[in-house]
Amino acid sequence: MAGSFFTGRLAALFDYKTEKYIVAQNKRVGVLYRLIQLFIIGYIIGWVFLSKKGYQETDEAIQSSVITKLKGVSVTNTTESGVIVWGPEDYVIPPQGEAVLFVVTNFLETPNQKLGYCPEVRILCIDDFRLSALSSGIRSGRCIRKDENSTGTCEIYGWCPIERNFKPQGPLLTNAENFTIYIKNFISFAKFTFSKSNVLETTDKTYLKKCRYDEELHPYCPIFRLGDITRRAGYNFQDMSTFGGSIGIMIDWDCNLDKGYSNCNPQYHFTRLDTSVSNKTIATGFNFRHARYFKNGGGESFRSLYKVYGVRFNIMVHGKAGKFSIIPTAINVASGLALMGAGAFFCDMVLLYLMKKGNFYRERKFEGSRYERQHTTVFMICHMVHLKHLLFIHIHQHSLSLFHRGTPKSACQDNCEEKSMEQGNLTS
Ligand SMILES: Nc1ncnc2c1ncn2[C@@H]1O[C@H](COP(=O)(O)OP(=O)(O)OP(=O)(O)O)[C@@H](O)[C@H]1O
């Protein structure tokens, strides 16, 4: 038994197979075949070519630069600091116009600090020494008591007086939401030797002084009011400015370079980056400390310590461009045609193996090979492997079109039918 099986297989190995087309007058398979063809054509045209622009080669913008500049003034009046006029050089940190910047909206100043001994009011004498991370100086070891009965606080050597406990009640730079930020972005797509800026190309020298970004009216104006940015991100600037927060500005370039230079323009998206699912998180807000140092007439060193709350802006750029190229077009057309063959294979399987008259069609199709007619299961599997292979070719070619490589070779084995991609082998 086993011997005749292997002899049969060996004999079939040296059979030469040629294509044969039979016209099956079967309406159901015919309609199925046309529907599959329609679906594949729709997929190729609609998805591969129109939606995914399979006729273009693409490039990601790796080179991009962002420069920012803020304008606007706010006045604060506090008991510690008196009246202060805040300009961009005071409230923008760092001031040199980076893509990540912090705008002060609230602050606590501890003015005229001098090096010396003073009580660290936040550390009681009974507190564990290991908690001294809270301390703003070196502990002298003395306990400062107001009277005999009080617990007392530790004395430190550091910048005195130390910062008082502060819970912000509301923002001090109330005009901060009217500050404007000018975002200058340059992007380049090296593959297409294309570069552009987000600043509208106009000869009107006053344009930047007058314009403010608006999705509808001025989508290409690069000057944004801070209050509008947070509003577009879905938050109120005044609410954010008491404890601070973080906002992401995404500049998105999605350019179809076939449409020309003037149609390549950025889109802006705004999101709050420090949101949390729970409102009760202890991570809300954004603040840090910095100091300004100075000397008095006698040469003594002083400093003013600022604990600043504010909004941190993070400008991110994403760029993608596409341009017509014959190579991805040819690859996608070829892979589309290959996929058409999958419809014919599927219908062959239905006709030869699932229909009642499958035996009849098989007899006519596999003429001269008893072995193939008898081993239905083996050949059904072979067909399925071939179908899977065709789909693989399509997917593989589709992904390769990005890299412009060649198409993979057919890997059909001896017992699989080497099918033609022509569509007319079954007609309804
Ligand atoms: N944040 C901003 N808000 C409004 N207008 C701005 C802002 N930043 C810059 N501009 C205006 O945009 C134009 C171009 O700015 P740019 O920094 O290139 O030139 P500039 O002459 O150095 O600006 P300036 O001296 O006014 O800061 C200038 O008219 C400037 O006043």
From TrEMBL:
The keyword Oxidoreductase does not apply. ATP binds at K69, L70, K71, T180, N287, F288, R289, K307. It is a multi-pass membrane protein. The chain crosses the membrane at residues 31-50, 333-355. It comes from the Eukaryota. Glycans are attached at N178. Disulfide bonds join C118-C160, C125-C143, C211-C221, C255-C264. It catalyses: Ca(2+)(in) = Ca(2+)(out). GO terms for biological process: calcium ion transmembrane transport; response to ATP. The keyword Nucleotide-binding applies. It is found in: Cell membrane; Membrane. Keywords: ATP-binding, Cell membrane, Disulfide bond, Glycoprotein, Ion channel, Ion transport, Ligand-gated ion channel, Membrane, Nucleotide-binding, Receptor, Transmembrane, Transmembrane helix, Transport. GO terms for molecular function: ATP binding; extracellularly ATP-gated monoatomic cation channel activity; purinergic nucleotide receptor activity. Coiled coil: none annotated. GO terms for cellular component: plasma membrane; postsynapse. Pfam families: P2X_receptor. Receptor for ATP that acts as a ligand-gated ion channel. Belongs to the P2X receptor family. This is P2X purinoceptor. The gene is LOC115595210.
